[in-house]
Amino acid sequence: MEAAGERFPKQRQVLLLFLLLGVARSGWEPRRYSVQEETDSGSFVANLAKDLKLGVRELAAREARVVSEDNQQRLHLDLQTGELILNEKLDREELCGPTEPCVMHFQVLLKKPLEIFRAELLVRDINDHSPEFPEREMTLKILENSPNGTVFPLKKAQDLDVGNNNVQNYVISPNSHFHVSTLKRGDGRKYPELVLDKELDHEERPDFRITITALDGGSPSRSGTAQIHIVVLDVNDNAPEFSQKLYDIQVPENSPIGSLIVKVSARDLDTGINGEISYSLFYSSQEISKTFELNHLSGEVRLIKKLDFEAISSYELDIEAYDGGGLSGKCSVSIKVIDVNDNFPELTVSSLSSPIPENSPETEVALFRVRDRDSGDNGKMICSIQDDLPFLLKPSAENFYTLITEGALDRESRAEYNVTITVTDLGFPKLKTEHIITVLVSDVNDNAPTFTQTSYTLFIRENNSPALNMGSVTATDRDSGTNAQVTYSLLPSHDPHLPLASLVSINSDNGQLFALRSLDYEVLRTFEFRVGATDAGTPALSSEALVRVVVLDDNDNSPFVLYPLQNGSAPCTELVPRAAEAGYLVTKVVAVDSDSGQNAWLSYHLLKATEPGLFSVWAHNGEVRTARLLSERDAAKHRLVVLVKDNGDSPMSVTVTLHVLLVDGFSQPYLPLPEVSAEEAPAHSLTIYLVIALASVSFLFLFSVLLFVAMRLCSRNRARAAWVGRCSVPEGHFPDHLVDLSGTGTLSQSYQYEVCLTGNSRSNELKFLKPAFPNLLAQDPERETEGNPNFPKSLGI
Ligand SMILES: *[C@@H]1O[C@H](CO)[C@@H](O)[C@H](O)[C@H]1NC(C)=O
Ligand SMILES: *[C@@H]1O[C@H](CO)[C@@H](O)[C@H](O)[C@H]1NC(C)=O
Ligand SMILES: *[C@@H]1O[C@H](CO)[C@@H](O)[C@H](O)[C@H]1NC(C)=O
């Protein structure tokens, strides 16, 4: 009771004290009533009149009333019936909360006399609230591998009801890992604990949800649920594991720097930092760390240095993978370098002899070595040179070759060879190296100088100035250097009579020929000699050529009159019968010119006549004929001046004076008189002259035969002195083989030459003699007109 009274506020305490005094006075035990919460208002609670053993009227008379301690009029006393009625619905949870039992104290107050009865109303609980978890979802983080039986306390559910209506039990949804146990705390409240039945595996199931249900003990029972989110925390329980224990890699040696060799990969089933893998080389030699680079994160192994099969052909790498928790795994990478044909063949010349002398037989020119740093077929080589060169390759030892000449070389046809040695390996693709060896061929004096012509003909005009350059001869030498230095010289003449040294000289350096003295066509028309060209090699080689000098004629001789003789000592008078017809041949002026060609082409003109018109001179042949019939009136003596002129550029001429005597007949003897004074020519003078002419021709013929015989003797007999004395020209010593057909000076000399000539060419004998007797062979008109009257050899008498 006291405990109950203390619950009320102060002013109520005063009243309570007062009441207690009254109760004490009255001495009543409190009356107890009970009512279920949530009972409807107006419901009957108890019959007070009966309990207080008072009549209904007395209650009314004494103004009975119900006073509750909190002054709330929850109860009402019906004075008509004396029954205690609920004034309102009572909510136990509101009135008492969790306090159990829930008792409401009240008093029944009576006046006159004042009387107080104490009473209690017990409000009984009903199950009108469900258990409720503080959160709809709870998160529970649990390390994987937590041992069996580990307990995880859970937040309890709350139920406003009390006693049995409060939470009595927890259950969870079926699962393979947990069960729930319901425990009771000191205050009697029940709370759940989750117990692990089976270890969790993060890798298997990182999280899941279960449902917990709280049940109260009411009838019917009420329940409340919540979700438990189980998060399985990872534990580093897995070591990284490589997908392959051994990586077998083949890498071509020419892989570029930076190329990917292999990507190793390890797996870690853990998550988070426990699953973070980093790679490192477990063991690395200096060579490996210089050659490869491992990416710690990606596991890529890349090349950082050129591979060289020839240096290192394989690598072994051990790679480790660590996870964040410190667990590790290992793998091996075996890298085999594949040979690639990346080395060019190399060629080293060990010895080279150049230049090599031409004409030397098979000669070793060069010795060289070839090498290929690749292996297998990539390192096998083939050596070759151009086909079109006179060289051969000969293997001499392993990888040694000699370059030799096929035979003698000729510097003059080719002085330099570029021999390209090609070394090709057998790899794929083929690599080749070319090396050019320049072989020089040195000169040997194997070529004599050669004249540009085998014979030279030089033309020189007579009367040249001395030391005239006549021309030159040239010889070339196909050798080189001193072997090609040509020196010219005059070779001794075959003809000992040719005064060569006084005629010509040669410039030994350039082959220019000079005439040393003035030449005379009429003396020497042509001559030949040999020149030599010698090189400066050892031994020296030489060759020779023939030089023929032809002297060209100049018009330097005036015509020479053979007939009639002009040296007044033997004056000549032609006799012409007065009966001669017109055109009668009086005489013929015979002249020669020791020049030749045009210069000896003579023409005859009548320059002066005692009686113009009586005689005419034929320009071509110098025949003097009567132009008309003679008459008695014509004077007996006539003097004719005939001009004989050559046809040279600057013509030269001579005049001939003829004396003509007109006679009546050849029967009249004619006496040649120094001064022809016969007024009349005898009629028969012609006959007399014919006889004289015949006699002189016969004499000349005999003379010729004699000379011919003498010439024959001359040629048989080599005792030349006598012969030369008779046959040679007075002013020169010309050998008989020289061609000199010119007439010189006198008729007799001219004949001497002609006879000398025929001595060497008998077949021409008559031919030469024939034109010597034009009158005897008589008046062949064809011959007169066709024959070149000025042909120098056609002498007429
Ligand atoms: C935990 O319980 C499960 C199932 O009962 C059992 O298989 C496992 O071996 C237990 N583990 C331990 C560590 O006792
Ligand atoms: C050889 O080669 C050199 C240098 O390249 C060149 O000057 C010369 O003309 C070549 N000779 C021949 C014969 O090809
Ligand atoms: C005239 O000339 C000829 C020939 O030259 C000669 O034989 C002759 O003796 C000469 N006569 C006189 C008189 O000089």
TrEMBL record:
It is a single-pass membrane protein. Keywords: Calcium, Cell adhesion, Glycoprotein, Membrane, Repeat, Signal, Transmembrane, Transmembrane helix. The chain crosses the membrane at residues 686-710. CDD domains: Cadherin_repeat. Its main location: membrane. One of its GO terms (cellular component) is plasma membrane. InterPro entries: Cadherin-like_dom, Cadherin-like_sf, Cadherin_C, Cadherin_CS, Cadherin_N, Protocadherin/Cadherin-CA. It comes from the Eukaryota. GO terms for biological process: homophilic cell adhesion via plasma membrane adhesion molecules. Pfam families: Cadherin, Cadherin_2, Cadherin_C_2. It is found in: Membrane. PANTHER family: CADHERIN-87A (PTHR24028), PROTOCADHERIN BETA-15 (PTHR24028:SF97). This is Protocadherin beta-15-like. The lineage of its organism: Eukaryota, Metazoa, Chordata, Craniata, Vertebrata.
